[in-house]
């Protein structure tokens, strides 16, 4: 399944800046960055649960926000791309 992960981490403190780096690193282990705080991830259900748990371990729910959207298939009907950025073909091997 394709999911979209977006987050907003408060960076007013050193701890917040650390959380931001850690959240981005977790997301990079599962997918590709499409904007500064938005990642596309091709995962199965177990990987999604693991990703969610890892992200919830990193964020401070009182200061930060996290959203995970499941993009329903068929992708051709639910995903439109414009501009110079082109997504990685998730059917190929993705090495992180």
From TrEMBL:
Keywords: Antiviral defense, Coiled coil, Endonuclease, Hydrolase, Magnesium, Metal-binding, Nuclease. Belongs to the CRISPR-associated endoribonuclease Cas2 protein family. The keyword Magnesium applies. CRISPR (clustered regularly interspaced short palindromic repeat), is an adaptive immune system that provides protection against mobile genetic elements (viruses, transposable elements and conjugative plasmids). CRISPR clusters contain sequences complementary to antecedent mobile elements and target invading nucleic acids. CRISPR clusters are transcribed and processed into CRISPR RNA (crRNA). Functions as a ssRNA-specific endoribonuclease. Involved in the integration of spacer DNA into the CRISPR cassette. The keyword Coiled coil applies. NCBIfam families: cas2. Pfam families: CRISPR_Cas2. GO terms for biological process: defense response to virus; maintenance of CRISPR repeat elements. This is CRISPR-associated endoribonuclease Cas2. Residues 45-72 form a coiled coil. Its cofactor is Mg(2+). InterPro entries: CRISPR_associated_Cas2, Virulence_VapD/CRISPR_Cas2. One of its GO terms (molecular function) is RNA endonuclease activity. CDD domains: Cas2_I_II_III. Its EC number is 3.1.-.-.
């Amino acid at each position: 399944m394709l999911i979209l992960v977006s987050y907003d981490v408060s960076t007013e403190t050193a701890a917040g800046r650390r959380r931001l780096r850690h959240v981005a690193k977790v997301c990079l282990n599962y997918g590709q960055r499409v904007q500064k705080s938005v990642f596309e991830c091709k995962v199965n259900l177990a990987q999604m649960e693991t990703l969610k748990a890892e992200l919830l371990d990193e964020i401070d729910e009182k200061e930060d926000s996290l959203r995970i959207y499941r993009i329903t298939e068929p992708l051709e009907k639910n995903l439109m791309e414009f501009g110079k950025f082109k997504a990685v073909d998730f059917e190929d091997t993705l090495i992180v």
